[in-house]
Amino acid sequence: MGQAQKLMEKGRVGVKPARTISKVGIIGAGQMGSGIAHVVALSGYTVAMNDLKKESFDKGIEAVHKNMARQIAKGIIKEEDRDTALERISFAPSFEDFGECDLVIEAATEDEALKHKIFAALCPHLKPTAMLASNTSSISITRLASTTDRPEDFIGMHFMNPVPVMELVELIRGIATGDETFSTARHFVESLGKTTAVSEDFPAFIVNRILLPMINEAVYTLYEGVGTVDAIDKAMRLGAHHPMGPLELADFIGLDTCLSVMQVLYEGLSDSKYRPCPLLVKYVEAGWLGRKTKRGFYDYRGEKPVPTR
Ligand SMILES: NC(=O)c1ccc[n+]([C@@H]2O[C@H](COP(=O)([O-])OP(=O)(O)OC[C@H]3O[C@@H](n4cnc5c(N)ncnc54)[C@H](O)[C@@H]3O)[C@@H](O)[C@H]2O)c1
User: What is the pTM of this model?
Assistant: First the structure.
């Protein structure tokens, strides 16, 4: 039996009953935080969502609205479902508003120092039984957990983008994550209609350990002049049957997030094969972060995306 399978069994057998979750706190109302709020509220949980500014929360709710409208048009949900779900989501301007939460999911910017600061400020406001999860794409769950007052109650809960559409959530146990926490997290994720895959706590876990080096290689291919943005994306869409080209996907993920993941892989595994492409660094330094800033490998300011190289 593989290590991951053993971990899954560990979550199933001989654990205390899963804790009840009814109120969920979310930190960060960006594309992931708002996507998580979307599925969590639709599944009947009450949601308190925090961000630095009320405008970010409003933007997040706007995205939830838009994505739910798509689901209504496709007959996946009804208008009443949207209305009740939206009523369940409220703005939490301060961590004091998380006192009643049974689970808090951190989905703020991919920056380890920032995440440590968030957990340090958050923990004093939590009830003793509250569980913590991070949606980090790459950062060590063991390290994040170790700076909190509850490493046994801490887990990696890695949702995929766009959250309402993607089936998978990776669950990552830190070295201290308790069986009950794992089992509660697994039940919670399944209650959202998602499937879990268990990953050991290594840099970038499973999906991004494989996906991000491919994206980084696509940026090198562009950097070295092997192909244009258009040629690289077309080649992978039509030649490898990928639903999106790697540069298009990088813009969708956010180039800052892509760079952070590559840095975590490079530093965490000390292997030069993970060196972030200098062109990726340059785009991030320019503030060209992809769709969210309207410019990345494509320019999204016009009617249709135009390659920037
Ligand atoms: N983008 C993806 O495809 C993807 C997929 C899976 C996981 N993730 C992970 O999810 C997390 C968020 O990524 P995203 O794509 O939503 O980024 P984003 O840039 O869209 O949103 C990040 C949000 O965090 C907020 N924030 C920053 N500092 C904060 C603080 N101190 N307190 C509260 N809010 C704060 C920002 O204002 C912003 O609204 C990251 O850890 C990322 O690695 C991203």
Answer: 0.91
